[in-house]
Amino acid sequence: MLNKRFFKTKNEAEVTFEFQHPQAEQVQLVGEFTDWQPVAMKFNKKEQCFKLKQRLPNDQQFHFRYLVNGTIWDNDHHADGYIANSFGTENSIVNTQRI
């Protein structure tokens, strides 16, 4: 799930990435905005999901995926969209355009 917060004085959005997976012991966020390098997400016991906040420039869209336990790739099932990638699967899309 993606939660977005826009700032009045900054040209960026704070996006909270939230992800649940029944087999997840660890989850990493991997995307264009991390140069496709995995970034560890923290487990929130209260909400029973992994979370990570990331600031991204406004009015753009970015591809990303989740890496579960270092071996399983998954998409955000509440992403703003999906696009085919060169591996024969799809990437999730986060859009930072103000609506």
TrEMBL record:
UniProt domain AMP-activated protein kinase glycogen-binding: residue ranges: 15-95
Entry superkingdom: Bacteria
Pfam families assigned to the protein according to its UniProt record, in alphabetical order: AMPK1_CBM (PF16561)
SUPFAM superfamilies for this protein: E set domains
Endpoints of the signal sequence: none
InterPro entries hit by this protein: AMPK1_CBM, Ig-like_fold, Ig_E-set
Stretches that traverse the bilayer: none
Protein name as catalogued: 1,4-alpha-glucan branching protein
